[in-house]
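Q: Sequence in, structure out?
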Amino acid sequence: MKIKIYQINMDRDENRVKFSRFEMLKMLQGSSKVNPEIYDLVYASDVDCKNLEEVYATFNMNHPADFRGHSLSVSDVVEVGEGSSVAKGFYFCDSFGFKNVKFDSSRCQISEFYNKKLDGKIADAQNRTESPGKENIDKEFDV
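A: Exactly. Output:
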């Protein structure tokens, strides 16, 4: 299952919605829409999971070695790609389960650690061939 995980960057979370369940968004920020501008991309990979509950368990109990975000929690967003039993889309991690939401990932930033991971991939690619650039490196995990 190809996924990307987005987590709220507290430096941009002026309304303090991090770790808040979906129904609290309207009260806290005046809108029930998930604001992608306060999120960072923290992880992108193909994981051995069949559904979102397995993703939740993996990123709480058995973090992959290269995952540097906090344990998957309420308010995080998981992007699911094609080729999965879960419909392609964005899923808000709620207090019970996940809620399919509209989410414009192009308005997110990339976490410092994930950015370093991309820089390493670019350096590896430069050693093999001409540099593909960050915009193409991320396509490896394009969901």
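Confidence is low (pLDDT under 50) at residues 119-137.
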